[in-house]
Amino acid sequence: DALERSGTETLWLDNDSGCKGVCKNTGMRNLRKEYAEDKTLCPYNDSCYDGVFLDALGKILEKPIEKDTVVTLHLMGSHGPSYWQRYPDAFRVFSPDCPQSDIQNCDRQALVNTYDNTIVYSDYVLSQLIDLLKTRQPQTDSSLIFMSDHGESLGEKGLYLHGLPRSIAPDEQRHVPFLVWMSESLRRRDGVDSKCLATLAADTAIDNASLSHLLLGMLGLSTATYDKKRDYIAPCRSGQTNTKTFQYQKATGQPPRPVTVR
Question: Could you report the per-residue pLDDT of 107-131, keeping only the tens digit for each?
Answer without folding.
Answer: 999 999 999 999 999 999 999 999 9
